[in-house]
Amino acid sequence: MTRAATSKGNLLRLGFQDSDAALTSLGLLGDAAEPLLALLGRTADPDAALGGLLRLRDVVDDPDTLITALVDDEGTAMRLLCVLGASEALADHLVRHPEHWRELTDPILGSTRPAAWAIRESLLSAVGADAADADPVATVPDAAAVDALRVEYRRLLLRLAARDLTHHLGVDDAAAELSDLAAGTLEAALAVARQRIGADAALARLAVLAMGKCGGHELNYVSDVDVIYAFAPAEGADENAAAKAATQLASNLMRVCSDHTGEGTIWPVDANLRPEGKAGPLVRTIASHRGYYERWASTWEFQALLKARPVAGDLELGRGFVETVDPMVWSAAEREGFVKDTQAMRRRVVDHIPAREAERQLKLGAGGLRDVEFAVQLLQLVHGRADEAIRAPTTLSALAALTDGGYVGREDGEALHEAYAFLRTLEHRIQLHGLRRTHVVPDDEASLRRLGRSMNFLKDPVGILDKTWQHHRREVRRLHEKLFYRPLLAAVARIPGDEARLSPEAAERRLGALGFADPRAALRHLEALTSGLSRTAQIQRTLLPAMLSWFADAPDPDAGLFGFRRISESLGSTPWYLSTLRDEGQVAERLARILATSRYATDLLEREPQGVRMLTGDLQPLSAEALTEEMLSLVGRHHEPEVAAKAIRGIRRRELLRIAAGDLLGQIDVADVGAGLSRLTDATLEATMAVAGRVARTQRGLDEAPTRMAIVAMGRYGGFELSYGSDADVMFVHDPLPGVEPQVASAYAQAVANELRRLLALAGPDPALEIDAALRPEGTQGALVRTLDSYAAYYAKWSKVWEAQALLRADAVVGDLDLRQRFEDLIAPLRYPPEGISLDDVGEVRRIKARVDSERLPRGADPHTHLKLGRGGLADIEWTIQLLQMRYAGAVEGLRTSRTLEALAAARDADLIGEDDAAVLQQSWRRVSRVRNAVTLVRGKPADELPRDLRERAAVAAILGYPPGSSDAMVNDQLRYTRLARAVVDRIFWE
Asked: What is the distance between the alpha carbons of residues 981 and 913, in angstroms, rounded to a whole number?
């Protein structure tokens, strides 16, 4: 060798990593080293290729013949060296079977793909079976036949890999040949199975139907081979005996392929896509298959059948199976639950990705192979009903047909084809190295270098490989989203350029498949949003593919799109609106999710469209102080009381939206919701009372108020636990200033309270804030406003135990700070008696609760699911905690709180309730409160029962964090929470 050729610099340029070892190894090749050196530099791993060549030379019968053949024939040399540099597993195979190197001298190897019949014949011959027989039977002894099948499979695989690596076959050619190789292997394994069971094999006709990638003629180098078996009794045979024989044949076929022997294994045969999966019989008649698919099959099973084809055994019987299931496959999109099932299948794909692999998963990860395959198959299922031209089982063929048919834009189709071909080629190269089933891109530099070079990236293989992979990954993610939605817009909008154009009918079908209940109305909304050449329409056409995708993933796509149209019509000409949605992807996604989930929040957005801006930031509720300051500032600028009240309500509307959005998007907890709503009510009452006071003073010609006033929050409001649909339970208290006539002070306080209620009740586009003062002394028959002394006199003389219980949640929150404190000091002995309540009073509390249980539950309501008054519901839990407070708060300071969870924690810390029981009540209270809020968010109005409407129930489940299709699981969990809570209530409250 020349000095230049063997310089370390030249070796490194050629791709060798260990130049010292390479020099030593090249020296062992003598004169052959220099002519082979350039060829080694074109392999995936020159070091491995050189090392593999020396290993092979040491075991062949005639080393000189090997080396001479490589020097004399560049084609042979390239094929062998490329295999040795790319596949450690095939290098090991050549060392075990050195005679197979001669396979790579075949001059037609690089230009001709073997016919499927030739591959089948070769594999059958290896086990001694006659390919001309209708039912070939192996004649080679069993163990030898199993080994011979493995050796022949590897020989054929070696030829394919050499052609693939050297001549860079298209991924569809390589995958199709791998599928033919799998089909021939199944046929040969079936021949071995027939030999094993002997004469009984003749009792049954057995068809082996390939599914998945094998069925689609797009198999990987290493993959499970998915199959389904169909059988029929041979003429004159008993069906039970035939079923037994067919089962034995199928079982043995699977073992022949997957068993480990001295020659290794081939691949597992997976029959779990059959009806009922692992639990179902391994073989069925076509009639049995038909019965299952007509009555029991899920939509995803028809999606799996899309690629079914007969590959081994009785092909005529297999074709009969395909003809039977085909009509069902192409009508699957019309089935009830189509959307739910396809979404569930997509979730299963994502859920199966280990977290450590998510960013490097070629198959299942975002922007991976499954995104392409899933999108293509779903488009086929939707449109293939009416268009037989797009029913091809192979992904790239189907994509080409979809592009030709206008279902996918031409440029998008080409980009997706290129991306898919790259990803599949990369997957093949990864698997080829060790012949292991993996879809994860390695992260070590040596492996990445080998992969990059195997794909002909000889300069900077690691950098170019990563850059190209990430580019195609981004394209797949973008196009996966666009495939479904962009052509919908082209169907209804006048879009210039060479865009895919669906017919309105095809667009309706696609919208229906995506879960829109009224596709025709959805098309009208799309037309209204996207028609025309204005900048607004152009931005909407850019936005809507993503928006439609998010709507389709949400519980109510129709509501989402309709809400988006209405908000866009309100804000479309506002400069910041569309640009914010276009440039802030998070805002658009948040908006879509809210609109397609919550009628309550959608109504607020329609009345407060500027609230879209709020979605750009943090959605934590504001403090009562900040809100009160903002509202009082507005009150000072508006002299008309109605105008001032409207301004206050505008801020309240905005903040209700903030809380609802934070709740829907999972940014705030149920306790934060209750606290936020309660703070907002505090500020609203404080500011509105300021307006009411101003009105009362003006009417009476007063310069200042003659009495101090305060508002006492009661019930859930006092407990800082308001829900979206709660009234504000309050009591009014006042204390005349020194020297003021009692009647004057009382008349003024009454006027302020009445004006406050009037202003809050003004008609307007807002969720009402209703004031309920029924918990005041003497209820609705008593005075609306009382002095502090009047409260003291009443409670000293007339108070009942239920009023003491009601005062447990009293919290003086609005008005004069000193008066608020004096009121709470006044009621402290009543609600926290030093010695606790008497046993008679305990009995009275229980009697009242029993009456509530029997009389207040609405007619027709289910006591198991009613959120407030049902068994284990809010009332059960809260009465239990309140009874502990009335009995023990005099001695346990921590129980002196108006808040349910704080009191529960104090009871647990004081050993008044066990740790486990306290945990059950806490979890159940939080759960039921969340569900109650979710129901209001979904329906737009308060309700204390789980909705019966399936779509509303699904939306409640989504708000609670359940994946789509899990509403039944949500209900079951709800029943479990309340059942456990009721058991604790029975022990603690009812003893």
From this structure: 13
CA dihedral over 935, 936, 938, 940, signed as positive or negative: positive
Delimiting residues of CATH 3.30.460.10 domain(s) in the chain: 624-831
Residue-wise pLDDT tens digits, 817-829:
999 999 999 999 9
Locate the DSSP E strands across 181-237. 204-210, 225-233
Report yes or no: 611 and 600 within 8 Å, Cβ to Cβ. Answer: no
> How does DSSP classify residue 960?
T
| Domain boundaries for CATH 1.20.120.330 within the chain | 337-495, 839-988
The superfamily in CATH containing domain 337-495 is Nucleotidyltransferases  domain 2 (1.20.120.330)
pLDDT at 608 over 90: no
pLDDT above 70 for 582: yes
Residue 544 near residue 582 (C-beta atoms within 8 A): no
What is the distance between the alpha carbons of residues 466 and 474, in angstroms, rounded to a whole number? 12
Beta strand spans in 785-838 (E):
785-787, 811-815
Instruction: Tell me the C-alpha to C-alpha distance, in Å, between residue 312 and each of 116, 187, 355, 684.
Output: 12, 5, 38, 76
- Taking only the tens place, the pLDDT of each residue in 459-471 is 899 999 999 999 9
- Residues in Cβ contact with 891 at an 8 Å cutoff, skipping those fewer than 6 apart: 834, 836
To the question of domain 624-831 being in CATH 3.30.460.10, the answer is yes
Q: What's the burial of 354, exposed, middle or buried (CB within 10 Å: 0-12/13-18/19+)?
A: exposed
Nearest Cα neighbor of 240 from 189, 211, 283 is: 283
Q: Residue-wise over 736-760: b if at least 16 C-beta within 10 A, else e?
A: beeeeeeeebbbbbbbbbebbbebb
d(CA 225, CA 912): 62
Structure tokens at 849: 């609760």
Return the residue matching tokens 């003491």. 804
- As to burial, measured by CB atoms within 10 angstroms (0-12 exposed, 13-18 middle, 19+ buried), residue 105 is middle
Q: Across residues 354-363, what is the average pLDDT?
A: 78
Rg (CA), the chain: 38
- What are the start-end ranges of the E strands in 241-314? 269-270, 283-284, 309-313
* Amino acid, res. 687: A
839-988 in CATH: which number? 1.20.120.330
pLDDT in tens, 614-644: 888 888 999 989 999 999 998 888 889 999 9
Euclidean distance between CA atoms 318 and 301, whole angstroms: 18
> Per-residue pLDDT for 487 more than 70?
no
Q: How far, in Å, CA of 615 to CA of 610, rounded?
A: 10
